[in-house]
TrEMBL record:
Residues 79-286 form the Smf/DprA SLOG domain. This is Protein smf. Residues 311-362 form the DprA winged helix domain. Belongs to the DprA/Smf family. It comes from uncultured Desulfobacterium sp.
């Protein structure tokens, strides 16, 4: 604990944010050396005024810092600092990395991370695509990073876990305040197959202002950020903007032009984000930094071939008219030019054969299947 306490102390100095903290460590190498430096040495750092240098010299660590460290250790959490070998290398490159991270699980310094984020109120299409994409990413030894929020974030972590891969969750609350609460089980599963991390104090609440700062860690720890389903006002676009500012790649999964849930992702594509149809699009774009095993299979979506299934002509017609993105029954009726009652009967048969799925509101879509080859 003694070697961690100075990091907490320097972080607690009024006026020392993450940006100045990084500058001080770059110059003096350790918090202990910062506190031992003279006022003139401190004020020689750009951004450190004589007044702030005086505050640093006079600062005494609050007693509750020791209690905070003890509480984290008793919970079984690790606390890693910028000088630790397990601190993410990519995160050190951003202008304002967190000086320390609380970690539940095992956080290695590997940089083969891809962030996948999106809407909290996702469609079945978005959730299905996310799970498939993340399962494919981990099959290529890539770690999936997300924020453990509802919707796309949860699907990203679940897809990685379903693919027996590693995933990292970055919280906008302390590790002692799991948010959302319904993801408590997921929290523990991620901890066993990767890590849940936070820069916030152990019992910090999930206040709204924490999440934009959390997003810089999600993008900063990753080689690129994939956005799946985001409106024009989505917080996921903040993560994408931060990724671009951090000189990281930005990817976007297209959706229906009629869905407001995809207006944000389409805007990103117009602005130059890489369009993603499958995992190969991501790997090809990052081929210069991703060292992939040539024998590693790449999973990609394989369209359902109606010739391999015993369907009559009308059933095949309906199946071919469906896509992975949900289609309303009225639109489908127009496409196949079939009476609604008959169409519903065919759709029911296809659903029972596990070829399609129905979402609330009479929305139908292909059941996406993946296969390794």
């Amino acid at each position: 604990m003694d070697n961690i306490l100075p990091w907490f102390a320097l972080k607690s100095v009024p006026g020392i944010g993450n940006y100045l903290f990084k500058k001080l460590i770059k110059r003096f190498k350790s918090p202990e050396a910062v506190f031992e430096a003279s006022c003139s040495e401190l004020s020689s750092i750009d951004g450190i005024s004589e007044r702030l240098a005086g505050v640093i010299k006079k600062f005494k660590a609050p007693e509750d810092l020791k209690k905070e460290i003890d509480a984290a250790i008793k919970k079984g959490y690790m606390i890693i600092t910028m000088s630790d070998r397990d601190y993410p290398l990519l995160l050190l490159e951003i202008p304002d990395p967190p000086p320390l991270l609380y970690v539940s699980g095992n956080l290695c310094s590997s940089s083969k991370n891809i962030a996948v984020v999106g809407s909290r109120n996702a469609t079945d299409y978005g959730l299905s695509i996310t799970k498939r994409l993340c399962s494919e990413l981990v099959s290529n030894n890539i770690t999936v990073v997300s924020g453990m929020a509802r919707g796309i974030d949860t699907a990203a972590h679940e897809g990685a876990l379903n693919g027996n891969g590693k995933t990292i969750a970055v919280l906008g609350s302390g590790l002692g305040r799991i948010y959302p609460v319904q993801n408590t089980k997921l929290f523990h599963m991620i901890s066993e197959n990767g890590a849940v991390i936070s820069e916030l104090p152990l019992m910090a609440e999930p206040d709204a202002f924490n999440f934009p700062a959390r997003n810089r860690i999600i993008s900063g720890i990753s080689l690129g950020t994939v956005v799946v389903e985001a409106t024009k006002r989505s917080g996921s676009l903040i993560t994408a903007r931060l990724a671009a500012e951090q000189n990281r790649e930005v990817f976007a999964v297209p959706g229906s032009i009629e869905s407001f849930k995809s207006t944000g992702t389409h805007t990103l594509i117009k602005q130059g984000a890489k369009l993603v149809e499958n995992v190969k699009d991501i790997i090809d774009e990052l081929s210069n930094v991703l060292v992939s095993n040539k024998n590693t299979a790449i999973k990609e979506k394989k369209e359902i071939d109606s010739q391999d299934i015993c369907l009559n002509a009308e059933e095949s017609q309906v199946l071919k008219a469906l896509e992975s993105y949900p289609v309303h029954i009225d639109e489908l009726t127009r496409k196949v030019k079939m009476e609604t009652g008959k169409l519903l009967s065919i759709l029911l048969k296809l659903e029972l054969q596990d070829l399609i799925k129905q979402a609330p509101g009479k929305l139908f879509s292909l059941r996406i299947k993946t296969e390794e080859y």
